[in-house]
Amino acid sequence: MEDVSLTEMLNAREMRCRIQQQLILAHQRPLICLTLNIPGPVKVLPGVPEAFETGCRRIEAILQEHRISLLHSEAVKEKTGYEAFYCIDASPETAKSLMIPLEDQDRLGRLFDIDVLRTDGTKVSREELGFSPRRCLLCSQPAHVCSRSRRHSVAELVAEINHILKTV
């Protein structure tokens, strides 16, 4: 378990954006991006590799079940976190509506952050499709409210995440 500096996190975000732009440009199709919601300086906790692989398998199973062509996929596994990218042949709204249940289906799914990007790079939001915002891992408030107000400490969140990861 290795701490990640702020500079490393910022560089990883820039790299993620660059990969997203390159894949959208190359394929001219929507992009599904999977990351894990892991707050704090350690992004690869015990169980993260297994949780990430489970998330990838779930996404791929949904795509196969709905006969959505997968044009390209790749993964990045760094100490700054694990990321998967899927270029698909489907509308971004359809893809997002299929991904939301994966985020909500169980405690492990709550750790998945699955974004769907349109070909112009904008994200499809849960709310624009009529879904409610994600809930906090620790209470019933919308996650963004707790995150912005720092209602819960990183230690509390990481303890809950470690508990979830032990079930993988």
Keywords:
168 residues; alpha+beta; Alpha-Beta Plaits; 4 strands; 43% helix; globular
Write up what this structure looks like.
By secondary structure, this protein is of the alpha+beta class. The protein has a single domain, classed as ACT domain (Alpha-Beta Plaits, 2-Layer Sandwich), CATH 3.30.70. The chain is 43% helix and 18% strand. It is built from five helices and four strands; from the N terminus they run H-E-H-E-E-H-E-H-H. Strands 2-3-1-4 form a four-stranded antiparallel beta sheet, sandwiched between helices. Strand 2 (69-78) and strand 3 form a beta hairpin. Helix 2 (48-65) packs across helix 3 (92-104). The longest helix has 22 residues, at 6-27. It is globular and about 40 Å long.
Strand order of the largest sheet: 2-3-1-4
Give unreliable regions as ranges.
Answer: none
CATH homologous superfamily?
ACT domain
The string of secondary-structure elements, in order, is HEHEEHEHH
Helix/strand/pairing class, anyone? alpha+beta
Number of domains: 1
Secondary-structure topology with pairs:
Blueprint: H1 6-27, E1 31-36, H2 48-65, E2 69-78, E3 81-89, H3 92-104, E4 112-117, H4 143-149, H5 154-165
Antiparallel strand pairs: 1-3, 1-4, 2-3
Helix pairs in contact: 2-3
Q: What is this structure, in a nutshell?
A:
This protein is of the alpha+beta class. It is 43% helix and 18% strand.
